[in-house]
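Predicting holo structure, S-adenosylmethionine bound.
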Amino acid sequence: MAEERTRATAAGVYDWCLGGHHHLPCDAEAAIAAQRAFPLTTRTARYNRDFLQRVVHWLAKQGVRQYLDIGSGYPTAGNVHEIAQASRPDSRVVYVDIDPDTVAVSNGILADDPCSLCIQGDISDPDAVLGHPGTGLLDFTEPVGLLLVSVLPFVEGDVGPLLRRYIGALAPGSHVAISHITAPEGEHARLRLEAAERQYNTKVQQRVNVRSGDEITALFDGTELVPPGLVRATHWHPPRPGYVPGDDDEASGVLLGGVGRVP
Ligand SMILES: C[S@@+](CC[C@H](N)C(=O)[O-])C[C@H]1O[C@@H](n2cnc3c(N)ncnc32)[C@H](O)[C@@H]1O
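Done. Tokens:
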């Protein structure tokens, strides 16, 4: 029998935060430590997942029928293929994750779906991701929805060249959705987020990096940001008029989200 993993993974911690069933005790321990330092950690994870789901609804309405979801995580209710295929049953989805267990669980769920699959890949190696036989499910001469939802924080350094490589592979009319953690306003909140980041990075295999709003905006170079632009992820096409989950809510303030259209 394989030995149980003892070091937390980004996928396992996120699953714990969302109340899923695919984490191990080490993931829970890392998540609880981050939560203690920054008590809105789990709420931020929920806001992130909600943003992803709203983006896919919106993209499906724009006519997008194929998706490349990199850093897809464990499948929880309301997966990209479920939302996309509810609007357009022929929608195709390629999920990519660095974590082998995430890939195995995803492919177990997708076994009967000829339009979706999950491959193991590192976002930092675009040639391997884009050249993978599994990615061949997508037709890159047609628009694709590229979903980079809370995955870029796990890549260190300048991710600009990486983004240019992925965006360069997309046909006009494609879209790129990005959410990213950022430093909150206010010294007290910022120090607490930094403490949570330190906890996370001592315990989790994939280190997390915070970026500024300007740095996140630059990730959309080569695309046209669609309204409302790069905003708090909670404010991006809110689910109903008047839905503003805490304007003064720190959890909402640490996560920015936006969608760019490839001209
Ligand atoms: C916070 S979760 C986000 C999951 C999903 N995108 C969502 O927003 O609901 C981050 C995911 O990115 C994956 N990940 C981390 N580093 C990665 C890398 N270098 N390449 C691909 N996936 C990565 C983790 O395994 C994890 O499943």
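The mean pLDDT is 92.
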